[in-house]
Amino acid sequence: MKDMASPLKHGKRQAALGFIFATALMDVLSLGVMIPVLPNLVKQFAGGDTAAAAQWNVLFATTWGVMQFFCAPVMGLLSDRFGRRPVILISIFGLGIDFLFMAFAPTLAWLFVGRVINGITAASFSTASAYVADITPPDQRAKAYGLMGAAFGAGFVIGPAIGGTLAQIDLRLPFIVCAGLALCNWLYGFLILPESLPPERRVKALNWRKANPVGSLRLLASRANLLGLAGVGFLFQLSHNVLPSIFVLYMGYRYGWSPALVGYTLMATGVAGIIVQASLVGPAVKRFGERGVLLIGLVSGAIGFLIYALAPTGTIYLLGLPIFALTGFIQPGLQGLMTRRVGPDEQGQLQGANSALMGVSAIIGPALFGLTFAWSVRHDAVLHAPGLAVVIAAALMMLGFLLALRVARPPAEAADQAQPA
Fold this sequence. Notes:
By secondary structure, the chain is mostly helical. 77% of the residues lie in helices and 0% in strands. The protein folds into two domains: 9-193, MFS general substrate transporter like domains (Growth Hormone, Chain: A), CATH 1.20.1250; 224-407, MFS general substrate transporter like domains (Growth Hormone, Chain: A), CATH 1.20.1250.
């Protein structure tokens, strides 16, 4: 297949990919660091009031999702018009400023401003995905997205450990360290990172009617099966929200596991996902194709969630871990299929639309799974189903599988991959 990627030479392309993977890792590392630290910092501001801290944390999480929903399409369109490099650099710089806000915020209001900034500029992962599509031949994209997924998983594995360790010294130290890392990453990108989208492949003018969630949906609806594939991605992201929403409480409640054992289990889950994405995606795509790995990932996720939900003992729960790890196939297969269906000047808008949908899942997911888990525990004597929320996640994953059976046709079989349907 002819390489339709950006005309970067091989050496520069590899260096650029290395930076992009590092950027993706930094983006997710920041989220991982905040998992054990931010709630405690909020609680400190709230005078030790756990209930008030919980309400603030919900507000922070919801605000971030809302900002992603409205701003990700704008950032995606800007990257299609002005190139990936400036948008990625702005995003990384915004991440560094967000960490500084959290490190030195004197009040909860200032902390909230930092989260708003991060929600607006947190486009580095989605724009990085567009960058990968620019410089990677279509038949190699799934493997590249698998490596990005490995970076994503590594951030969630390493981040909480870094945050928890540094927080023992000072609660704000993790944010200072991450601010320094983000700003060093920005400086490296400013000096080294080449542009991946040449001027002749960019949109000629900004169309602000496309720079909103509704405009993003129009793009998704204008290509054969693209809206359906986006729906698969949304169902996957929504179901995946069950993990951060309830699993710490769920494993402690159902199996009596200590916080340390819960942490080790979540770390093992992350490591298994990294192994799948870093080493198995490439061979699996060669063997089964992008559609095949997507379907394998979705059905494995549904089975894995069912095992998690129904396992009567912790030992049986752990049997689901290697099966669930195959969900690492989902995003590489999905991105490989989706990026083939739009042109070079629309990759940013596509990734912005995906990020907007991820923002919606981040808004809906915590309430859906958190409230379901609370109800199932509160009514345990009536209906002993502490895994009810996880069953719902399995059902969403299976719904994604059924939808993918219909819409995830290989691009060679699609009616039209690069032109409006």
